[in-house]
Every structure is written in C-alpha cells, then in structure tokens.
Amino acid sequence: MKVLDVQNLSVQYHTGQGHRQALDEVSFSVEKGGIAGIVGESGSGKSTAMLAVMGLLAENADVTADAIAVCGQQVVPGRDIAMVLQDSLSCLNPTVKIGRQITETIRAHKNCTRQEARERAEELLDLVGIRNPAQRMRQYPFELSGGMRQRTAIAIALACEPKLIIADEPTTALDAAVQAQIILLLRRIVQDTGTSLLVVSHDMGVIAALCSRVYVMQSGRIIEQGTAEEIFYSPQQEYTKKLLRDARGIQRLRTGEKDSEVLLRLEHVTKVFDTKEGIRDISLEIRKGEIYALAGESGSGKTTLARILTGLLKPDSGRISYKGETLDAGTQAGIRQGKIQMVFQDPYGSLNPCLTAGQALSEALKALSGTQGGMTPRERRRKAEEMLCMVGLSAEDADRYPEEFSGGERQRIGIARALISEPELLICDEALSALDAATRSQILELLLSIQKKRKIACLFISHDLALIRKISSRISVLYQGRLAETGDTREVCSDPWHPYTKLLLNAAPQPDLLKARRTRPVLPAETGQEKGSRGCPFAEACGYTMKCCYNEVPGSYSFGSRKTACFLYSEEHTGKRAEGYQMTSQI
C-alpha cells in the first residue's frame, strides 16, 4: 500500500526575470512502513518537491499535479506528514523551552491534558535517544548539541503521529559519529512505529544506509528509479553513475607545496565559556601555502578556534602570532583585515538578504583599505563578476538576491566574497558540509588552484574525514576542546593512533549497501566526561581505558610528526620501551 503517492508534480516560479521551471512532471511514492530516498545534486529540485507536497511553497510558485495523496486521500500537512529539516536550530523556537515546543505540538494534534502531553513528550525524547528527558525539557535549543537538537526535531515530528516523515538532508550538518546515530535512530523509528520515511539527500552514503527504494533527480526531473540494489549496483543513467563515482572518489587531490615559513602559530590557547564549552591548551602551527585540517564532532571547539583566529573572540590565555608578530588588541585589526578571511557554514545566514551577489562582493572590496578599497564602483563591479565566474556562477548572477540561489550556489558566493580580498590565510568553517559531492569537488579544485597560484594557506575545519583526506597535508583532531591527535593527514587517516580518531573514521556512511547497512560503533547520544572535569574527556566512550584515564588528563605525547593525547603512548602508564623502539598504533 502506498502511503504517499505523487504523480506528475510540476512547479513553476514567477519572478521579475520571468518564469522558471523548477519541477517538471515529477512522480514518486513511498510504501507503508518503507523508506524511500530522493537523491540529487544541489539545485536539482529535491527540497522544492518536498515543500510542494507539504503546501509550503511561496505565493509566486505555480504548483500543478495529477495527484498528491496520503493513503489515497488528499494531503493534510501537519497531520498526515511531518518534516525534519536540515538545520534543526532554525526550525526550533530559540525563545521557547524544548518541553513546551513538544507538548504544544502534542496538544495541537491530540485531545489531552497538559500533564498527559508532558508525559508523552518525555516518552518521545526517550524514544529518540535523549537521556534525562525531564531535565532536557527545561532547556532551550541553544543549550543542546547539534545532534541533540536534531533528535528533538525528530521527536516533534513524531508528536504529530504522522503517517509519513519527510527527512530533508537530516544529517548533512552533523559530524560522522552523530550522523551515524541519527541514521540508526531513523531506521529504528520506522521499525518500531511503522511510520514511513522519505529521505531527501545529496549524500549517497546516507541513501545507502537507509533506503530500500531510490529516486534520482536532476534538473527538476526524476531521471532514474529502482530498488537500492538496482541503483547502486547497476545504474542505467550516466548522471547516476557520476553521483556514485563522486561519492566513492577517494583519490587525493594535488595541493600546493607548503613553505617552511610559519604563517600562523598558536601556543597553549585556551578559551572557556560559563558552560565549560570551549578549547583548552591548543598548540599548532600553519605554514604558508599549507592546507591544515581541523576535525572533530559537533561541540568539539572547532568554530570557537576559528572565531578566535578571526578576532571575533578573545582567548583567555595563550599566544597567537602571525608571521612572527603577536596578535593582540593593537595588531589584530590591521593584520586580520584582508589577510585572514573566513567562509562560514551557513551561506544564507552570512549573506545580507537585501544585497545582490554583486553588491555583497563589492561591499567586501569597499571595506578594504589601500588600492582595492579605492576602486571605482565600476571596477568593483567588474571584479565581483570575475569572482562569480571563477566560482562557477555567471556575471548575470551578480544581480540576483541570495534567496534566488540554491544552497550550493550561495556557498559559492560566500567563497567568492572571502577570496576577493586575496587573503593569505583562508579559514573554511564547515564551508562544504551542505554541498553535494560534485559541487564539493568543484569548489575544492577552485581552492586548490588559487592556493597553488597565490600560495594561500587554508585552515580547513570539517567533520568529514573523507574530504579532509583529499585536500589537507596535516590534521589535528579535536575532542571536547582538546587536541586528541595531530600528524600527517595520510598517516592519521590510514593508521589512527587515538581511539576517537578511529571512531570518526569508522562512523562515516559509505556509498555501498553492504558497508552502509553494517552496524558501526558510534558514540552514544550523550557520552564522555563532563567538560572541564578531571580525566580524559573520551574515557567513558573508549574501549581502552585504564584507571588513570578517569583521574588524570593525558598530556601530548610526541613521536616524530605524530602527537597524541592518550595514556597508551605514555611510558609512565604503560611501561618503559626498549631503546630505538618505533612507536606504532596501540589500538
């Protein structure tokens, strides 16, 4: 029996520039208790199709269809279908506590008392794997990690008691360990509740891990459909084959040669907030022309470090130097203006919706001092158009507003804006996490070509170790604000020394049915030592713990270019080694 049946769905947008066909006679369905997936690159029309089914498209959208039905009846959005979006923080009310948001949803769909709704809310939070639900219900969304917020969004969707849940890129912004948790959670919810699931994603690994039937979308059309086995093992369309090649591609991209000159150095940098979140005792150095990676899960401190480097936050202690000059209150502004630029994770949030793409880039040039800041408006416009073309857009796109671009196209604008000032250090904070595989490859090739030409250095912050392996020369792995492991990227990713690094590598979903559906060891929903407490922060989740792990914080043990914060590599705790002993992985 078909829970959702969509036949010949078409969507046309009416804009000031004319009419644009977004969907052209799209048909798909989801069986009762089944999991179907729609996969395609950014801008292919996936999200437009879901919003059309939900009746949430803007007034300038003309929607036509032969049928949009749930169990043979006309769709009633909010009752028959619930939706889980990519950005859980934006779909949760930041001023309302978690418990109230869930209970209000329950009472809107069910005749019950406040107490009954509260009890049901706690049951739902427990169902989605959140410990201490009574405590969490008293918290606001910003007090939860990204993974916990996504679980809360799933709990709210379940509160509607829908026949179908649409999950639109539900794991894209999450790190590998939390992503694996959400995948297993969604699979378990379908098995335990009988609710059908429609997964929308550009990630072939997520589709492989969840879906039994797959629809491939390109340019607003369904170009191929079939069982997961048919799509992954015998695809017919060249576009589908390309998606699989891009997802499976693990070849290392050529990077520019790094210089011996140290561009940026951090020494024992610490920044701790009242919530005990932050970073502690971070030391690393980035050389000129080098792509240096910083990996870790949500809440590990990656973004805090990026904000310190760009001057948005001031460290509590430690030293940061740029080309040997200490960055303090007197030198930060001059050095960072133009020399250190940042590309953010959320391109829509970092772009002014009232400025066109061309105006956004022109404003970036106008803000600079010196020659570029003295450009005429016509020169700035020409430079902006050149940068848009460099990142794969067109000169005509300079007159379009952010809302008229897809997510991948908006990220291209953000990258162009950062690069237009010709920086010496580019900080990419999860800049590619929301992009499909093909777009990621294009942007990476762009960054590498600029790096080789201008010897630009890059701090590449990401939770995607497969992506990091392609592009970076060295890597540091963060866990709960501390460096777990540092070394050559190829060595760390092929032979991890720290148990947490190994977990991250094993948790990433693979675009292969057998590997993706195999149960993988992942972190529980809430684990690890309390931030700032005594002991190794990874002790509770580690399979190699010793007594000392709960009472002492491990130091950084160095062996050549490798550094790891694990007592397994300490002679004090594991015994003295013979002279000339070559350290290898102890896990």
Automatic annotation (TrEMBL):
It is found in: Cell membrane. It is a peripheral membrane protein. GO terms for biological process: peptide transport. SMART domains: AAA (SM00382). It comes from the Bacteria. InterPro entries: AAA+_ATPase (IPR003593), ABC_Ni/Peptide_Import (IPR050388), ABC_transporter-like_ATP-bd (IPR003439), ABC_transporter-like_CS (IPR017871), Oligopep_ABC_C (IPR013563), P-loop_NTPase (IPR027417). Keywords: ATP-binding, Cell inner membrane, Cell membrane, Membrane, Nucleotide-binding, Translocase, Transport. One of its GO terms (cellular component) is plasma membrane. Residues 4-244, 264-505 form the ABC transporter domain. Belongs to the ABC transporter superfamily. PANTHER family: ATPASE AAA-TYPE CORE DOMAIN-CONTAINING PROTEIN, OLIGOPEPTIDE TRANSPORT ATP-BINDING PROTEIN APPD. This is ABC transporter ATP-binding protein.
